[in-house]
């Protein structure tokens, strides 16, 4: 057998082996078996470092790392891909994925630069809305609120059918709220609740709309929206807080009896919440303003006795003393002020 024929046969065998191993690794990836795909792709790249599938195998390895939550390794793999293949055919999805991996691994400044590069280089990409959203999240993480709002607003304006639209609106509302622009936040949350009732954010939006209504001093709206939120999502972690601000909203409207009723509801249904001392204080203060001094004393005394470390302890003692004065029980008042 001629030497060149024998070598050709060996090369063919190696090529067939390489193709088979790549198909196997890619098949694992296509089937969503990412841990096994990661391992097989690493083995493939070790054995066939310069094959015609090296670029794609490296890209799929980065994707596998991303899918198993190893974002640091994913970032490193994508960066290696760009260094080794500067004219990469699928640079567009790889660059977007690099930016996402950098964001998820906490490298926010690097992620921001990668998203900006993507936006510059691929202005017609069908994924530009996705990149704009995450660019906004980067700015938000870096506390650059105006730039974050600009990114989200561009997405909302230019991509009205984007799957990220509800998230972008939600983020704008949240940023407005954090900047104490509560009226703007209120308008955004109301739009979200009305136009995106099926959004996976609807639970958070329902509560945020109620809280923002309170901050905007729209107390009737706060009562309505917080009640709706509790009825629709009673197991939400902020349900107790919603109950407290429902009571506070009634108080702000001057309806002290309903305020007391709702403070009492919180005590019954959320007995281990952080709002207990403030609810007893609310009951006491509402009764004091109604001149129901004995009931006010009972609420304030419960707070003082059972929550000695509360920030409302000293105020409660003062109110107890004043209630005794109004009841003309001067000795009790004197003893209270001494304490």
Plain-language structure description:
It is built from 18 helices and no strands. It has 339 residues and is mostly helical. Helix 15 (276-289) runs antiparallel to helix 16. The relative contact order is 0.04.
List the helices and strands and how they pair.
Layout: H1 3-30, H2 34-47, H3 54-67, H4 71-84, H5 91-104, H6 108-121, H7 128-141, H8 145-158, H9 165-178, H10 182-195, H11 202-215, H12 219-232, H13 239-252, H14 256-269, H15 276-289, H16 293-306, H17 313-326, H18 330-338
Helix pairs in contact: 1-2, 2-3, 3-4, 4-5, 5-6, 6-7, 7-8, 7-9, 8-9, 9-10, 10-11, 11-12, 11-13, 12-13, 13-14, 13-15, 14-15, 15-16, 16-17, 17-18
In short:
With 339 residues, this protein is mostly helical. 77% of the residues lie in helices and 0% in strands. It starts with a helix and ends with a helix.
Observed structural traits:
mainly alpha; elongated; 18 helices; 339 residues
| Integer average pLDDT | 94
The helicity comes to: over 70%
Q: Write down the overall geometry.
A: elongated
Overall SS class = mainly alpha
Question: Strand portion, in percent?
Answer: under 5%
User: How many angstroms does the end-to-end distance come to?
Assistant: 109 Å
Oligomer: single chain
- Number of DSSP helices? 18
Q: List low-pLDDT spans.
A: none
* Largest sheet report: none
Order of helices and strands: HHHHHHHHHHHHHHHHHH
Number of strands: 0
Computed Rg: 31 Å
């Amino acid at each position: 057998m001629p030497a060149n024929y024998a070598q050709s046969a060996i090369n063919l065998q190696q090529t067939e082996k390489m193709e088979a191993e790549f198909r196997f690794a890619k098949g694992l990836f296509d089937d969503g078996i990412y841990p096994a795909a990661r391992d097989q792709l690493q083995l493939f790249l070790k054995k066939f470092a310069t094959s015609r599938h090296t670029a794609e195998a490296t890209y799929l390895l980065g994707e596998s790392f991303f899918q198993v939550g190893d974002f640091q390794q994913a970032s490193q793999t994508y960066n290696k891909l760009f260094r080794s293949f500067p004219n990469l055919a699928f640079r567009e999805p790889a660059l977007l994925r690099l930016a996402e991996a950098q964001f998820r691994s906490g490298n926010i400044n690097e992620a921001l630069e990668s998203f900006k590069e993507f936006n510059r280089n691929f202005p017609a990409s069908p994924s530009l809305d996705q990149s704009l959203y995450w660019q906004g999240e980067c700015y938000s993480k870096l506390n650059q609120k105006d730039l974050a709002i600009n990114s989200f607003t561009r997405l909302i304006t230019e991509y009205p059918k984007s799957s990220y639209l509800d998230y972008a609106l939600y983020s704008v509302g949240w940023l407005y709220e954090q900047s104490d622009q509560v009226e703007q936040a209120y308008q955004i949350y109301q739009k979200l609740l009305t136009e995106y009732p099926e959004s996976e954010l609807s639970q958070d939006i329902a509560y945020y709309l109620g809280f923002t209504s309170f901050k905007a001093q729209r107390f009737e709206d706060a009562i309505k929206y917080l009640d709706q939120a509790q009825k629709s999502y009673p197991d939400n972690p902020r349900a107790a807080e919603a109950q407290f601000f429902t009571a506070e909203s009634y108080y702000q409207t001057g309806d002290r009896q309903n305020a007391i009723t709702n403070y009492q509801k919180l005590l019954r249904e959320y007995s281990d919440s952080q709002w207990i001392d403030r609810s007893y204080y609310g009951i006491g203060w509402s009764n004091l303003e109604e001149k129901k001094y004995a009931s006010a004393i009972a609420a304030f005394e419960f707070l003082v006795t059972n929550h000695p470390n509360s920030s409302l302890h000293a105020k409660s003692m003062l109110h107890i003393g004043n209630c005794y004065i109004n009841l003309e029980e001067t000795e009790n008042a004197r003893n209270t002020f001494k304490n």
